[in-house]
């Protein structure tokens, strides 16, 4: 949002994200057309009411000295450096805490003000080490800058007074150090922890001169509640809180703005560089998704990019029992192409396929599916969304007509009730979790439907909250009883239903949903949630004003995942919570570009932009552009590929940047399928679990090594910019191009922007997207075309792509995975903050400090029944397999439900998960597996085999690398 | 009929052994088989006479003090003269005992005061509704309930009452601001975090006449449409906490608090909250932070607490004495209050005489007499017998006044003109043995101990201030350090966030300005100390 001010030459100047305006944009900005006019140092300025004098001045490039003020924090008024004089007012008010007034005459510089500022600075420096030249903040220190700005020339107090110079450093956090001897107690870190991150881990201990920053109850940072988001480090004006990287490497010399490659929030970061080395990643204030905030992963866990395990050269082998042989790119490509052709010659056109990556860029994903459809000549393409959000695509397309979330993240600022279903935002989407927490602190109500008591329910200063701790697998029963309550208590939005929903569908749905069997009372025995709570929650959502739903994999990864997505859309449609700020249906997408990989035509039945392969008109356009005839039949989904592989009809697979061997369910089954392939081509940055079964290993490039775009969970297309050269010489899209060319299907691009231009020319929802437009706008939320030239932040404002909203019948059908005498517990899986997905990246960083093994969480009751104590080895068995994890006893769990993560391959979490899956999309039912748990003394057989196999494959890799070293010599 | 005997239950009396006296009275009555009614009243504020025992007679009360437990038997001998049950025999006026004081109302110290706020102090049982009603209690509330809210605010404005916490902001204007805000909830917060050295008037209100404060707060609530009140009481006042809570419970039971006050449609709830032992929480914004359960740190203004106060809602924050003045104003009318005082300082101020004086205690006077008159007419000379040299008025942030300034009238404006403050009415007297550079150091050190640490001038400045004063006192580069101290004081005055930092220089500067001869003396004494070591 622009803040307008005079003189006129500034009127259209954008806010500069690299400048700190001292205080946040006024809350009245945008809501009030009336501007307040005042004079600062004789310059006439007009700003929205509520703007601070400090900010008003900064907008006119009158830069008042400041230390405690920062425009991502509420004004605090403690440093007193921004004192000014205002005509008609007494004394020297702090400009940060003084709102503008009409006709105000402000003086920011004169002799008296100068002296006051100098004297305040003199006090600061009387308790500060004089080691500027050897200080890590040298060159990036606001205290130093301000001392210079106020012209401090001497410290008359001397340096022998009471001071904090001997304070002990805390280096317990792996990424940053805390040196209290440099601290000026501006409280910016404390305020950032509260206001930006919402963790409240920091405080001021003691008072007066003894005031000092303390983590927790004066603990070491690592032992406190600190989640290492980095907000405090970013806020610190001195070197008190400082990245260890900067301490070791010195100040960066240039910066490049790019997009984080972890979760679906899609945070913008400034990669602060020294040559081609990343010194640090600093969240970029101009990033529309994260607005200057970050989490421990994006902010700090980038060291994997230069980890010694990186694959730096192409490698091939004839069989997985052989050591790898490092070869040239050309040799690797001819080897791969020859194999693929041989397989197709022997087993037919449909015997090969590929998997696109939700971690790679839109352009790369687009090319992989293009290679498969045009080069392989079939539609055997799929992506990891299959195992996460495919039901979102199906469910939302059916009900709302578009396969994506309806809102911006920012929209949560206007939500009055927030309903979170099967998502854990503070761990899995931490930056958005912080935005949510901010809104909850402001008073929004919270409903959490989750088997576990997730951290969001522990939000400091949370007001009204309801937890609906349902049994895993009963989502649809719960959402139906919520809808029943809304309809039977007359809480629906009749006007919205009449004007925006399809009549026939609604009448059918109404008849279904108001059947007594869907009532909270009838469903209580199924869900395990008290009917009174369900009714209370339904009212809280329906009567909120703005009710917003956010959901995650706890919704989709079920046998009724697609049904549940539709049930959620039904709720929003029935209550009119769609089509404006503060409402909507918002899937929290797990991976950085899972939205993009779906948009780019990764699914076997859909061309880019969700255009069906059977649609002759759409397919015709692609055929014309790509110069080949395309198959009009959908190809194989990932589970179909495995089945076909085991049946002997599917023999070769090209996998770009995905680790199906670790992430897909029923590991035994997946491994058997991979072993049966004649040719497995894996393109990845590491020897991942899948690569251990591969014949061709193509080095991938990290997000730091390439140009492209990612699309986040709010449909926001963000630029990814290359900050260092690819380690193995090729960006991922170049590898696909080379493979395609080797196969004989010509591809020729000199830059990913050309790929985007091709996408835009073929995809109606992307027709307005180009790199030039992205540079101009910063980011674009699709659809972006003639009707919406700047993209579309909130969808379905006027109507739906299918015209009217379509309420769908959502009959609850119990999953076949249910607790039995043999498997009396239900296992559900999830994420934790410090590790990301299969852990390939985060396990190769210091994030291991927080979570170096997956554990099994269980309720004290279940533990006691089995004589389990904290830390015991537990054998977990399901009908699919058996693995062993350590026990953690936790009241977050409900009795009968156990929980684990799958960040470590050796844990074998997916050895236990079954091949049960969503009826519509085959999305695996990761969230419900019937298990038994018992105390054991050793790892499982699978784990032992895994360890042996891993050791063998690592040996193959080492010898491949060694051979290469020898060859080079 | 049993004999009514009074012995105060306030903190001062207890500190002076009041409980032992009570025990002795009970024992003595038992031994003699006498039926007595022992009333635990509040102190009249004549602290040098506490514990002061009073006896109800046909001819009014007679007093004895300061009484020790060992005096009780002799006093009983006198008041229970053989042949008499409950009344003194004729001819025995009860003043034969050496501690006899006669009718306490006739003691000049009390008689010469103008007690409007403290009219009931020491007379009634502080927690008795009946006693309170019998002494004109709740009349102000009754009158207020008959008026509309604006009329109450107007009455308070017309009285000229100014904030008695020290800032002297017109109470009626503050009320008007809150009155004019529309909000779903407003609050009345009573600042009872009485932390100024040498002050005790708030405590005396709460211990001697707590129902007056309750009444004042209810009226405030009615006037600005606030339904919830909090008394933020310093935790160092456990006795006041006890008495205040008893009074509030009784007021609830009698229908003065809660819903439908006196059958009206008005609601007012009241609770006492204990402070967290920080001087800074007497600063209104820190107080609000603390009351909200947070760390006691100063908030910047604006927004004014009247507009965004407790939990972000419009809030009247008034000192105990301000609120305690309200029942009188609403009972007798604004003019009756405004008739007292001088200039823009209307009504009375309860002065608290402490320090090196024979007769410490509470002196409620209309504004107007000089400081010298106050101290001379009531103080009874220094405890040590040495001549007086300096008087600090207005708490630890008030100026030290030399004799040349003692003729300043007790008036907000006159004191301000003299570079001093009346503040909360604390008066601390020093005799000629005082080293005023040490007092200057003490004032700065007080800021070191009590600074919340939020703003830089106060947080670091106070510590540096003590160090600079130490250098001056030890003769180290005196001229340069005096100049530096002056600069530092200006920095604290101009740069501090609240009065804690910006007023600390007042006593410091006054000590160096009016008692500069002590600098050389301090140096000499530090040299002497070094030599003896």
UniProtKB/TrEMBL annotation, chain A:
Signal peptide (residue range): none
Residue ranges constituting the 4Fe-4S His(Cys)3-ligated-type domain according to the UniProt record: 112-151
Chain intervals for the UniProt region annotation (Disordered): 948-969
4Fe-4S ferredoxin-type domain segment(s): 174-205, 218-246
InterPro entries per record: 2Fe-2S_ferredoxin-like_sf, 2Fe-2S_ferredoxin-type, 4Fe4S_Fe-S-bd, 4Fe4S_Fe_S_CS, Asp_de-COase-like_dom_sf, Formate_Dh-H_N, Formate_DH_asu, MoPterin_dinucl-bd_dom
Superkingdom to which the source organism belongs: Bacteria
Domain 4Fe-4S Mo/W bis-MGD-type: 253-309
Annotated ranges, domain 2Fe-2S ferredoxin-type: 34-112
Keyword list, A-Z: 2Fe-2S, 4Fe-4S, Iron, Iron-sulfur, Metal-binding, Oxidoreductase, Repeat
The keyword Protease belongs to this UniProt entry's keyword annotation: no
One GO term describing the cellular component: oxidoreductase complex
A biological-process GO annotation: respiratory electron transport chain
SMART domains assigned: Molybdop_Fe4S4, NADH-G_4Fe-4S_3
GO molecular function, one term: NADH dehydrogenase activity
Protein name as catalogued: Formate dehydrogenase alpha subunit
Lineage of origin: Bacteria, Pseudomonadati, Pseudomonadota, Gammaproteobacteria, Oceanospirillales
Automatic annotation (TrEMBL), chain B:
Keywords: 4Fe-4S, Iron, Iron-sulfur, Metal-binding
Cofactor(s) demanded: [4Fe-4S] cluster; FMN
GO terms for MF: 4 iron, 4 sulfur cluster binding; FMN binding; metal ion binding; NADH dehydrogenase (ubiquinone) activity
Keyword Iron applies: yes
Domain of life: Bacteria
Domain NADH-ubiquinone oxidoreductase 51kDa subunit iron-sulphur binding: 437-482
CDD domains: TRX_Fd_FDH_beta
Record's keyword annotation contains Iron-sulfur: yes
Family per record: Belongs to the complex I 51 kDa subunit family.
PROSITE patterns assigned to the protein according to its UniProt record, in alphabetical order: COMPLEX1_51K_2
Identification of the protein by name: NADH-quinone oxidoreductase subunit F
């Amino acid at each position: 949002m622009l803040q307008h001010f005079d003189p006129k030459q500034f009127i259209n100047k954008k806010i500069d994200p690299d400048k700190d305006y001292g205080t946040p944009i006024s809350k009245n900005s945008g809501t009030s057309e009336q501007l307040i006019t005042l004079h600062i140092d004789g310059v006439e300025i007009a700003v929205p009411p509520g703007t601070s004098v400090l900010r008003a001045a900064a907008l006119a490039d009158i830069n008042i000295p400041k230390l405690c003020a920062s425009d991502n924090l509420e004004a605090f008024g403690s440093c007193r450096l921004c004192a000014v004089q205002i005509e008609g007012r007494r004394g020297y008010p702090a400009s940060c805490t003084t709102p503008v007034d009409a006709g105000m005459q402000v003086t920011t510089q004169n002799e008296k003000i100068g002296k006051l500022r100098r004297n305040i600075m003199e006090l600061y420096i009387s308790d500060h080490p004089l080691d500027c030249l050897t200080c890590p903040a040298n060159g990036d220190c606001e205290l130093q800058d301000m001392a210079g700005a106020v012209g401090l020339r001497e410290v008359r107090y001397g340096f022998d007074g009471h001071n904090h110079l001997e304070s002990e450093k805390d280096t317990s956090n792996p990424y940053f150090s805390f040196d209290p001897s440099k601290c000026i107690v501006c409280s910016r870190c404390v305020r950032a922890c509260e206001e930006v991150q919402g963790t409240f881990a920091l405080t001021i201990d003691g008072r007066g001169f003894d005031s000092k920053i303390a983590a927790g109850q004066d603990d070491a940072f690592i032992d406190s509640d600190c989640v290492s988001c980095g907000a405090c480090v970013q806020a610190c004006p001195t070197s008190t809180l400082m990245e260890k990287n900067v301490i070791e490497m010195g100040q960066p010399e240039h910066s490049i703005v790019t997009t984080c490659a972890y979760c679906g929030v899609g945070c913008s970061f400034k990669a602060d560089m020294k040559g081609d080395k990343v010194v640090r990643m600093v969240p970029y204030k101009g990033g529309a998704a994260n607005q200057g905030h970050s989490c421990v992963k994006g902010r700090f866990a980038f060291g994997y990019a230069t980890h010694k395990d990186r694959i730096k050269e192409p490698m091939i082998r004839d069989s997985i029992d052989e050591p790898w042989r490092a070869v040239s790119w050309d040799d690797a490509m001819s080897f791969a192409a020859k194999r693929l052709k041989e397989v197709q010659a022997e087993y037919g056109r449909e015997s090969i396929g590929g998997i696109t990556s939700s971690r790679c860029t839109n352009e790369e994903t687009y090319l992989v599916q293009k290679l498969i459809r045009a080069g392989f000549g079939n539609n055997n393409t799929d992506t990891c969304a299959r195992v996460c959000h495919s039901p979102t695509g199906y469910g939302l397309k059916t009900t709302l007509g578009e396969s994506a979330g309806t809102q911006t993240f920012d929209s949560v600022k206007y939500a009055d009730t927030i309903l979170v279903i099967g998502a854990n935002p503070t761990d899995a989407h931490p930056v958005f979790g912080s935005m949510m927490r901010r809104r909850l602190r402001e008073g929004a109500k919270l409903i959490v439907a989750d088997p576990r008591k997730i951290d969001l329910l522990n939000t400091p200063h949370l007001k009204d909250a309801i937890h609906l701790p349902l049994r895993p697998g009963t989502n649809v029963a719960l959402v139906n009883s919520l809808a029943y309550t809304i309809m039977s208590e007359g809480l629906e939005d009749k006007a919205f239903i009449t004007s925006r929903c399809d009549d026939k569908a609604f009448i059918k749905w109404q008849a279904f949903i108001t059947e007594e069997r869907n009532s909270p009372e009838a469903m209580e025995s199924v869900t395990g949630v008290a009917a009174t709570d369900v009714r209370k929650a339904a009212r809280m959502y329906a009567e909120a004003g703005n009710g917003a739903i956010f959901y995650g994999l706890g919704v989709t990864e079920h046998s009724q995942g697609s049904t549940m997505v539709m049930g959620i859309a039904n709720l929003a449609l029935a209550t009119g919570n769609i089509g404006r700020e503060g409402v909507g249906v918002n899937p929290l997408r797990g991976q950085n570009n899972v939205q993009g990989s779906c948009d780019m035509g990764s699914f076997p039945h859909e061309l880019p932009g969700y255009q069906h392969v059977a649609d002759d008109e759409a397919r015709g356009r692609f055929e014309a552009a790509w110069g080949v005839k395309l198959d009009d039949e959908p190809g194989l989904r990932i589970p179909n590929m495995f089945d076909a592989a085991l049946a002997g009809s599917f023999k070769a697979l090209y996998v770009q940047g995905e680790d199906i061997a670790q992430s897909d369910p029923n590991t035994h089954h997946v491994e058997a399928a991979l072993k049966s392939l004649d040719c497995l081509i894996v393109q990845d940055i590491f020897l991942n679990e899948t690569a251990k079964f591969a014949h061709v290993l193509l080095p991938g490039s990290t997000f730091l090594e390439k140009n492209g775009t990612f699309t986040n969970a709010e449909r926001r297309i963000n630029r990814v910019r290359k900050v260092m050269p690819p380690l193995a010489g090729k960006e991922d899209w170049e590898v696909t191009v080379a493979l395609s060319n080797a196969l004989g299907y010509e591809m020729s691009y000199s830059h990913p922007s050309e790929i985007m231009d091709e996408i835009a020319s073929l995809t109606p929802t992307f027709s307005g997207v180009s790199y030039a437009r992205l540079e101009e706008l910063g980011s674009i939320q699709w659809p972006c075309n003639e009707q919406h030239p700047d993209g579309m932040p909130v969808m379905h404002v006027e109507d739906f792509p299918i015209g009217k909203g379509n309420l769908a019948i959502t009959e609850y059908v119990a999953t076949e995975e249910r607790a039995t005498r043999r498997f009396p517990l239900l296992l559900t899986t999830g994420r934790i903050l410090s590790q990301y997905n299969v852990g390939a990246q985060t396990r190769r960083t210091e994030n291991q400090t927080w979570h170096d093994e997956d554990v099994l969480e269980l309720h004290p009751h279940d533990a006691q029944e089995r004589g389990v104590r904290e830390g015991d080895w537990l054998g977990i068995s399901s009908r699919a397999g058996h693995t062993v994890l350590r026990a953690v006893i936790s009241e977050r769990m409900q009795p009968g439900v156990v929980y684990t993560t799958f960040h470590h391959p050796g844990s074998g979490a997916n050895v236990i998960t079954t091949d049960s899956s969503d009826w519509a999309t085959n999305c695996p039912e990761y969230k419900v597996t019937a298990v038994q748990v018992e105390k054991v003394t050793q790892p499982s057989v699978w784990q032992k085999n895994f360890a042996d196999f891993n050791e063998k494959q690592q040996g193959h890799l080492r010898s491949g690398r060694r051979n290469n070293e020898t060859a080079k010599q | 009929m049993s004999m009514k005997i009074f012995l105060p239950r306030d903190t001062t009396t207890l500190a002076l052994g009041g409980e032992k006296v009570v025990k002795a009275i009970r024992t003595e009555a038992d031994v003699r088989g006498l039926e007595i009614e022992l009333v635990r009243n509040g102190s009249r504020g004549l602290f040098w006479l506490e514990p002061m025992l009073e006896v109800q007679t046909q001819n009014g009360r007679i007093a004895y003090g300061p009484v020790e437990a060992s005096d009780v038997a002799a006093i009983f001998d006198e008041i229970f003269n053989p042949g008499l049950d409950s009344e003194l025999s004729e001819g025995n006026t009860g003043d034969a005992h050496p501690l006899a004081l006669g009718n306490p109302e006739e003691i000049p110290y009390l008689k010469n005061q103008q007690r409007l706020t403290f009219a009931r102090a020491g007379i009634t049982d502080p927690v008795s509704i009946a006693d309170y009603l019998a002494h004109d209690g709740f009349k102000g509330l009754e009158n207020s309930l008959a008026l509309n809210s604006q009329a109450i605010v107007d009455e308070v404005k017309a009285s000229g009452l100014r904030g008695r916490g020290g800032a002297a902001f017109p109470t009626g204007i503050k009320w008007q601001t809150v009155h004019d805000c529309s909000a779903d909830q407003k609050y009345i917060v009573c600042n009872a975090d009485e932390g100024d050295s040498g002050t005790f008037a708030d405590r005396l209100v709460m211990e001697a006449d707590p129902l007056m404060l309750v009444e004042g707060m209810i009226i405030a609530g009615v006037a600005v449409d606030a339904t919830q009140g909090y008394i933020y009481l310093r935790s160092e006042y456990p006795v006041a906490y006890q008495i205040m809570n008893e009074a509030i419970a009784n007021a609830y039971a009698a229908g003065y608090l809660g819903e439908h006050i006196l059958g009206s449609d008005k609601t007012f709830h009241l609770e006492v909250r204990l402070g967290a032992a920080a001087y800074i929480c007497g600063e209104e914004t820190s107080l609000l932070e603390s009351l909200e359960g947070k760390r006691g740190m100063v908030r910047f203004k604006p927004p004014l607490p009247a507009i965004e106060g407790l939990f972000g809602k419009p809030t009247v924050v008034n000192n105990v004495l301000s609120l305690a003045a309200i029942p009188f104003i609403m009972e007798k009318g604004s003019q009756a209050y405004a008739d007292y005082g001088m200039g823009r300082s209307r009504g009375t101020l309860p002065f608290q005489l402490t320090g090196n004086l024979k007769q410490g205690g509470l002196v409620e006077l209309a504004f107007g007499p000089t400081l010298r008159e106050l101290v001379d007419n009531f103080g009874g000379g220094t405890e040590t017998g040495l001549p007086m040299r300096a008087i600090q008025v207005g708490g630890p942030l008030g100026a030290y006044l030399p004799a040349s300034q003692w003729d300043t009238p007790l008036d907000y404006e006159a004191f301000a003109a003299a570079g001093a403050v009346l503040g909360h009415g604390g008066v601390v007297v020093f005799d000629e043995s005082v080293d005023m550079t040490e007092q200057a150091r003490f004032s700065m050190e007080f800021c070191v101990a009590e600074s919340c640490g939020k703003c830089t001038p106060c947080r670091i400045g106070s510590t540096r201030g003590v160090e600079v004063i130490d250098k001056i006192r030890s003769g180290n580069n005196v001229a340069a350090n005096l100049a530096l101290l002056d600069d530092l004081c200006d920095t604290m005055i101009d740069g501090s966030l609240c009065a804690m930092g910006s007023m600390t220089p007042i006593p410091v500067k006054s000590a160096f300005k009016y008692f500069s001869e002590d600098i050389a003396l301090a140096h000499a004494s530090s040299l002497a100390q070094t030599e003896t070591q």
